[in-house]
Amino acid sequence: MEKKKKIKERITEDITTSLSAIREGRSQGKSLDSPEVCESIRKLTKKIASIMRTELKFSEKFELGDQMCAKVLKEGTLVDDMMDFCLQHKDKLPVIAPGVDVIWRFFMNGTMFSPDLSRKISGKVGFLSYGKDVLESLYDLYVNKKTIRNQVHTLDSISTTTHNMCTFCDVTISDVRAAGFLAVYLKYLKHEAVKDEFVKGVPILTAASDIMNENDASITGNRRDVEYMIRGIKEAIQSPSGQSRCWFAFELGKTATKALAHLAFDDDNKKTFVSDTQTDVVTTLFDLARSSRYPDVRESAKGVLWTLSEQLHSSTKYADLVQKLFGKKTKGHVMISYSQEQRPLLLRIKQAITEAGFSVWMDIEQMRENVYDRMAEAIQDASVVLISMSYSYQRSEYCRREAAYASSLKRARIPLLVDPGYTAEGWLALMTAGDYHYDFGREPFETKIVELIEELERRCLKGQGEVTDGVVKQKVVSASKKSPSLLELQEDLLRTEKRKLELGMEVLAVKKGKLEEEIGVLKLQKEKLREEISIIRK
């Protein structure tokens, strides 16, 4: 304990000294790129980075790092001035001023610890777009190996900063995506100069995978790309310390499996992965799913295998492995597959179906551990799966995997339309084409729930205690026994609505802050215009 206390005290003292030197230099009118101030920022950055190399526990490292970044954020307008300084050098791209690369290195290290710093960067009008512009301006130089040292450092720092923002402060993901980073990252990843050196490509790959969705899987599925991803997975497996070249093993493994997950939704890629014997991607994924030290990596690997399940079940090489990983005996129930955004409506549907006497499985607790094991068991034990169709369902990787796995096991499927503004498209429209859709989004609930229960009656048992297609009807409990579960349901709905309101208030607060900053910028521009008009008149 004494040793840890000394580590914390030493780091705190060094960072306080660096901040004091920065403050003194700025009070003397020195700019952020002056040798004195620039060197102090560099020392501050190195000291924050050094926290990860201490003997503290991971939780203690992140706590200390967050505290040190909080000290920086409280240092007057320092962080805002850093961002303004970078924006002032936008017109000089691709030239990177000495102060600019040092500032981005600070952001890179600070965002690993501080969600507040991530939100500060995300909220600065035009700053993320500027970061994207820097990467675009460096592309030709980078792929032709003509970049100088501080340009390479800045490229790595910007991509790692956006990765940290998305990993440790996920509320900034939409802002990073909106700034246009993905198109730039994918452009880099497609070039041979990046593919040939995996370690140099890691920051770009991780940053891209953070903001990719199923419609962005434009990293092609050829052998070179598969090998590229597998190198990342093996890096995660072989790292004995939990970190490799300043990257956590779970980051490398999660990124690689996430990128593979996007690729695995493509039918041609599925065949490539399962038949490939050179890189043996599937065997590596099974190893990760069963024995990785990192829960996130295990779940990501299971997710890819889940997506490939239909091909794996048909493979003589992998059929037994996938059965051992996911296989269990069928018991029979009605499963509700849904996106959390439609949870209140689906809870009403669940209540009605349960009271009609059916055994219903629904993830109410929002599974966090062993997600794919529990999803697999729920689908394998189901005879009927209710597909709750909505825009959020279509975009969700978890939901897509549930629907695909249920289809691969030939489970009966009943589509429910639960979003009034949604029209089926893409993979979801193709999967449910020809099925009758129960429209709970536009039609009266009371009418559609009766129709749905009648459909379940046709598919399932009519006599009590018997089994048809594996779906068991239960005795309807007395009214006195129903009341507590109904009360719990109502309380759960109220909590959900309350959380929605809270999230709405947070979004409004962020938007308000951005609008206030934009108004401030417009005021400055107005004053500058007035000055220019005054000069012209004189």
Automatic annotation (TrEMBL):
InterPro entries: ARM-like, ARM-type_fold, TIR_dom, Toll_tir_struct_dom_sf. Residues 334-441 form the TIR domain. This is TIR domain-containing protein. It comes from Magallana gigas. SUPFAM superfamilies: ARM repeat (SSF48371), Toll/Interleukin receptor TIR domain (SSF52200). Pfam families: TIR_2. One of its GO terms (biological process) is signal transduction.
